């Protein structure tokens, strides 16, 4: 029997990079170009295993990890859909992080959000020193929320994750694994990592819905899989009911339509059926401005026991689906 997606009426949060690439205010589309891949951290044959807090609410899945900045232990959401790492504006001010450069404007679901780059000279992921970097200070719908009583201080984005070589989100065992020389187990999907001139990074794969191929962003921070504009009709997604409210990372809301994706795959690897959302007016793009069909969110990724991003070899590795 073919499994079909079903819909539970709720409000949803989609990730940081859902409508357009990061833009520098006043510079138009000049930043939406590919740039050289940033240097990765030195490879370490010994894997770094860190606790991963996995929160499930029905089909919604979120994953969080501890990041130490200026000696302060902070909770960050692991968000590959965030082209740049984001820190709460309140936390950035409390840590006296210096501003770097002009303010940015990022388009998110429902509106555009202004943010300010700040410089982080000392920070660590577990016992792994992270490179000195300008990240983005911004107020988002995630920052300020609480997970098990701890305030979420930011989004650990693809600008940092892509420098770590291999990153595994083990949803089943609640672990984040960085590096190591052990070959990840699972089905391999070809992955394309793109970089823009303001440091934004994104990962896309070729996914086929009802035998219709397209480019999709991989977004561990999005609670729901999202389809762009008219893609839902073109791909044959099945309407599931009346429109609902969805929130972008900046906290703005818009009405979207729930649709079912029953049969689809990524590079030949079967993906589980899901109840996605279609934003009729949304134009989705990668960090370099390439138009994409949709965003594969944590509602799909979290159905696998683990998901590995092999940035060195441009691979996404999906382990067995969880029952």
Any descriptors?
323 residues; mainly beta; 12-stranded mixed sheet; 4 helices; 30 strands; globular
Summary of the model, kept short:
This protein is mostly beta strands and 323 residues long.
Low-confidence stretches: 7-13, 15-33
Distance between the termini: 16 Å
User: Which structural class is indicated by helix and strand composition?
Assistant: mainly beta
Radius of gyration: 18 Å
Q: What general outline do the C-alpha atoms trace?
A: globular
How confident overall, as mean pLDDT?
84
Oligomerization state? single chain
Largest sheet data: 12 strands, mixed
Number of helices, where a helix is a run of at least 4 consecutive DSSP H or I residues: 4
Instruction: Find the count of extended strands (DSSP E, 2+ residues).
Output: 30
**Helical content band:** under 10%
Query: Which range does the strand content fall in?
Result: 35-45%
């Amino acid at each position: 029997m073919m499994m079909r997606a079903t819909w539970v009426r709720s409000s949803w949060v989609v990730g940081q990079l859902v409508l357009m690439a990061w833009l520098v205010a006043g510079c138009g589309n000049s930043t939406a170009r590919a740039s050289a891949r940033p240097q990765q951290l030195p490879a370490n044959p010994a894997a770094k295993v860190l606790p991963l807090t996995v929160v499930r609410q029905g089909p919604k899945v979120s994953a969080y990890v501890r990041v130490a900045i200026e000696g302060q232990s902070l909770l960050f959401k692991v968000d590959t859909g965030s082209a740049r790492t984001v820190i709460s504006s309140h936390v950035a001010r409390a840590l006296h992080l210096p501003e770097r450069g002009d303010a940015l404007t990022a388009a998110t679901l429902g509106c555009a959000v202004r943010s300010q780059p700040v410089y982080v000279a000392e920070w660590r992921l577990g016992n792994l020193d992270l490179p000195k970097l300008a990240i983005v200070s911004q107020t988002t719908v995630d920052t300020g929320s609480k997970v098990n009583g701890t305030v979420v201080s930011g989004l650990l984005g693809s600008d940092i994750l892509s420098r770590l070589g291999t990153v595994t989100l083990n949803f089943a065992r609640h672990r984040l694994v960085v590096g190591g020389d052990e070959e990840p187990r699972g089905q391999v999907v070809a992955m394309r990592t793109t970089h823009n001139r303001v440091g934004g990074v994104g990962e896309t794969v070729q996914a086929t819905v009802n035998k219709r191929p397209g480019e999709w962003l991989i977004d561990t921070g999005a609670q729901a899989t999202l389809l762009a504009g008219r893609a839902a009709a073109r791909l044959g997604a099945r309407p599931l009911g009346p429109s609902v409210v969805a929130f972008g990372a900046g906290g703005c809301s818009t009405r979207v339509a729930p649709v079912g994706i029953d049969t689809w795959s990524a590079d030949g690897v079967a993906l589980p059926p899901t109840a996605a959302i279609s934003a009729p007016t949304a134009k989705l793009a990668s960090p370099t401005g390439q138009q994409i069909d949709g965003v594969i969110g944590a509602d799909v990724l979290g159905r696998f026991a683990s998901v590995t991003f092999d940035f060195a070899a441009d691979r996404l590795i999906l382990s067995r689906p969880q029952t």
